């Protein structure tokens, strides 16, 4: 009962945060972490012990699957070079650079444990990046690189974290063995994601052949897909995170959606939107719930002079160190890309100083880092306490909060003016796609209408075809570059929309009256209300915009 009440309380505050974020000008993850910290700060407040493996299983697969599914695949493929450079190269660079810096700054942390903390801090948080970084401020190319990096570096960071922890436990480390294990974990993780997609496709295919299968069964297959991918990979000792990301990236290309009924597709879209919001909010509130307990247990190694100033300064210096390492690596990658372009006689597209700085600040840390560091073992193999465990947990939590705070405060100022005003390239691409699709539809309709038949049936068919084609012509006019044509199309579309919405409202009122009188039962009313709701949603989605 206590667990159920706790879950309901967390979900209630997730809902509240969705309303409060409109009133306070802070990113939603920062607000949710603050809510969680406020709930846990009193002595009698909410407290929960996180099981890291359960935490990763419940939250990470669906969130990364959703981000990977919605990520622009064409852009990620075009930018695969810098993305892999950050997702793999920067992880190793961070482990070495940050590990030595941490050991120098806090000598009480053994070097191998410092490398473990550096490994778990190297992945950026995909959820936090997409929530904090304003797409209207950051250039599209940089945003795509950040998204791709955050989807892939979780796997490389956590795999290296496991190796460094194993080295701390055994006292030995083999670079060759670690490299081979890393490659195997990546390869098996990708294959596990593909296998999960195959299982989901076959399941949907079987369900589609069974008559009267409820749409909810097909929706459930899509909900289970990221968890199946994650569990298969983890069972094989590979990266479950990379398996979930692979499944998300390939779902759109696999064609498994064609086995789903239309109603199941609509329900899946709605359900995933709700689940992503719920998991996102719950994740950051749970992260906030951990902070008061961690802060109260400030390790004595950081309080030799001042209880508050010295720990805060250490966390700030470490966060700035991470940002500095990112900046240096991005700068080096920029130079390498320019040289490669010159050798290949291609046009170079280097980042400017402010874009590099924005990309460095935007590399925030989040829930994966906290879950990973909390999974540190309590003791070594000989039974002695794991060295500096409480200290590195405190530092990891502090860096998470500090990176989120710096990104929230500094990124808008750094990125302001980087995006030139004017039409977004995606908007122009959308207009071209709408015009092309509408022209194809008109040609097909006109071809079907003029099939050579005669008589009243042929006249009726031509009249209906003209009525349907006029909808597509208006859509072309709305995408026209000429202001007059677009204005006229918007006005006619607005009038038609008002009339059709008025008719839908009258339908709804009459159905409610019939239900109250007992002329129809609840089943009939629910079916018709659902149809009306879908029609209304489609109409409002077509509402003309400037």
TrEMBL record:
Membrane topology: Multi-pass membrane protein
Listed GO MF terms: potassium:proton antiporter activity; sodium:proton antiporter activity
Chain ranges of the Cation/H+ exchanger transmembrane domain: 13-415
Keywords recorded for this protein, A-Z: Antiport, Cell inner membrane, Cell membrane, Ion transport, Membrane, Sodium, Sodium transport, Transmembrane, Transmembrane helix, Transport
Top-rank taxon, per record: Bacteria
Residues spanning the membrane: 83-106, 112-134, 155-176, 182-201, 238-257, 269-295, 315-341, 362-380, 392-415
Entry keyword Transcription: no
GO CC annotations, alphabetized: plasma membrane
Subcellular location: Cell inner membrane; Cell membrane
Role this protein plays: Na(+)/H(+) antiporter that extrudes sodium in exchange for external protons.
Stored NCBIfam families: a_cpa1 (TIGR00831)
PANTHER family, per database record: SODIUM/HYDROGEN EXCHANGER, SODIUM_HYDROGEN EXCHANGER 7
Protein name: Na+/H+ antiporter
Species, as recorded: Mesorhizobium atlanticum
